[in-house]
Amino acid sequence: MADKPKRPLSAYMLWLNSARDSIKRENPGIKVTEVAKRGGELWRAMKDKSEWEAKAAKAKDDYDRAVKEFEANGGSSAANGGAKKRSKPTKKVAKKSKKDDSDEDDDDESE
């Protein structure tokens, strides 16, 4: 059975993928993180995003159609996403315990 379709890219991500090369050309040796930062600045400064928003809307429509087809062919939306969602609370519990430990350390210092 085929895997569940991947979620569509946002208008920003579609634009960034097309603009990435020009950003790199204008800023030789720029780090990946800096490309994303510069891309964000350029995106926020853009006045007319309708072209990219239209492409994103089309990608979302295509995705919705693909998901319906996937589910109609016996695919389950809970089967793929459910396993990922179950593992996240475990990580959050670990983070909470670290915060609890740091709170206890703070109490020890004040005594």
UniProtKB/TrEMBL annotation:
Q: Per the UniProt entry, what is one GO biological process?
A: chromatin organization
Q: Which SMART domains match?
A: HMG (SM00398)
One of the record's GO cellular component terms = chromatin
Q: Which residue numbers delimit the DNA-binding region? A: 5-71
Q: Name one GO molecular function term.
A: DNA binding, bending
Q: Where is the composition biased (Low complexity)?
A: 72-82
Any idea what this protein is called? Answer: HMG box domain-containing protein
What species is given as this protein's source?
Drosophila willistoni (Fruit fly)
